[in-house]
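Tutorial handout. Part one gives the primary structure; part two gives the three-dimensional structure as tokens.
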Amino acid sequence: MVKLTYNLGGGLPDPSIFPKKISDIHFEPEISFQELDKELLKILNYRGINAKNEELLLTTGSIQGIYIFSYSFIDPGDKIAIEYPTFAGAIKVFKARNPDLVKLPVIPYYNIEVKEKIKAMYVIPTGQNPTGINMKLEDKKRLLELAEEKDFIILEDDAYGLLTPEQPTLKSMDKNGRVVYITTLSKVFSSGIRLGIMVADKEINETFRKVKENIDGGNSTLSLSLLFESLKDGSFWEGLTRAKRIYNEKKSIMCEALNRYLPQAEWNYPEGGLFYFIKIKGINSEQLLTKVKDKVIFSPGSKFFFDGYGKEYLRLSFSYSSPEEIEKGIEIISKEIQ
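Part two.
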């Protein structure tokens, strides 16, 4: 069967990075949650976070973590600062709570000096989605100072942090319980097994647990067992090492393809994450996608701005497609623009 559509859209992981075929992982019907917590704490320690068991909450992916935070903290009319642009899924979750969204510009770089009185802030400081920038250490320190001075809480989304562990998390620097941390394991372990980790001070986490119980009653035992075995036998960490290598190679390949086929585009080489966020003056990326969607898929830039701005932008993912598909997909886009 001939493949007609090249997928440069969502941030699906490359299947070859996964530790093992799911069918090859030993399934233990009864697992020790105490032992599982120990393994999860190792993941957090890898990101510089020294958490306690009572501060942990396993979520059904990072989106559920964002929902739990929103449901617990945000009321209609609250001022919430979110990156501009940012993760499209987070925008949908926040908008459902009817807050007053405040722009936190990230192009060309973060402007964290929010002048308005806000209740909370959402940031992806490592491998920001969609821009791929990393927040500088001095700005992370300043952001924590602002949270204290202006009395707001920070939701740190570390979805891509396992791929760039040299970048310190806000949570690892948090001394006053101002940061709620979330991450996802689907980028490394398996996209089909929706698991994430949420970290917050004990009192806050108790509220989060109650919200989660009302949503789904708990995580799948099968998913937890498969994750536990992969962490125990080391295959999880093997997959992570493989993912870093593969994604760095693909990032370079996409860079070469952009230079070759879209020299008129404006973009920065991503420091982290799985995407290029490019600007092509004069285009409408929503209309462009309509024209090429039977051949190549990408994400229109307007998805990542909460006010519909960004039609000259498009986000291209290098994670899922092969090197040949990346090049072919960008070539198709360039021909349509010409």
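Part three, for discussion. The radius of gyration is 20 Å. The mean pLDDT is 91.
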